[in-house]
Amino acid sequence: MNVRTRSSALLCTLGLVTSLALATASAEDADARQPVTKAAKISLTHVATARNPIAGAAGPGGAIWIAERAGTVRVLGPRGLGEPVLDISAETTTDGERGLLGIAFDPARTHLYISYTNLEGTSTIDEFAVRKGRIRPETRRTVLTQTQPYANHNGGDIKFGPDGYLYIAFGDGGAGGDPHGNGQNLDTLLGKLLRIDPRGGTPYAIPSDNPFVDDPNAKDEIWAYGLRNPWRFSFDARTGDLLIGDVGQNDWEEIDRAPARSKGGENYGWSQMEGTHPFRGGTEPANHVRPIHEYARTGLGCAVTGGFVYRGSAIPALRGQYVFSDYCDGTIRSLALRNGKVTGVNDLVVNGGEVISFVEGRAGELYVLALGGAITRIDAA
Predict the structure, then answer these.
(1) Going by fewer Cβ within 10 Å, which terminus of the chain is more open, N or C?
(2) What is the pTM for the complete model shown?
(3) Is 209 helix (H, G, I), strand (E, B) or coil?
């Protein structure tokens, strides 16, 4: 691993808490009073070019840190991307859907977490202390690992929730059709969204209110299950709601949601269901949480790329809408939401290329990452 201390300086096919509750309810009520908005007029402003940009996060001072799939992390400045501040390229590979797949900062921006597959293909979450905007390589430690049976459906996204805990998304393990039944199996971390406290224990602690901590047949880390390849997920910066873009098998792409007041345990259906549709004769689970939006692979789409609910100020007409795209189609779209339900689907009439990820800046503005290299910012047209 190489670390530079100056911050100035996938994929083939992606088949790829009471106060909090009260605050959330208030925010949702406020949103409910807003009229259904028409499609916002946006443009994409090119800000930098990277080598296969894969993920990003707002770091110290609000600077955007960009992860490149081959293993480097660079900081976006006024003159574009600086030299790598982290380089683990000797510790990962880019075969299949592997590589450096996600990065996140804790709420205080004093620790950086990276999500990658190591040379054996094992999903790995590592932590680094960050001081004065610089990574301290000597503080590196591994927080969590998960063996992956195949080179696809690794997931790999990581985010800190409004509760201060780290959420980790893992796909079902790969191949096709979930051959090991991991999506509905609570005795594996595969096909799940996890919730851990990385600073509360060695190597981490399990939050006491995780939904399966008292179930001897389930992994304590699990927050939600029934996911195929939750490539990108996010939390609404205003309400705390969770939204997940889960990549489908052959026919349906879906966006799932859980309100901020959720106590976890949601079953999003895979592999009994693909979206709202039984998968290969599957039976819909009684506790299935249906997606808030799905779309068929009858057009150019092949793999949903989940984004964020826009909470910036540059585009008032877009505020409160969930922005997302598709890796193959590239069109930037948005969902108008009211009380957690979709009231409209908007084509924003711009194309971001092979959209692999979105990044939310500290002020709520959104950036689009295209695997081919382009980093663009969503601006008003």
Answers:
(1) C
(2) 0.91
(3) coil
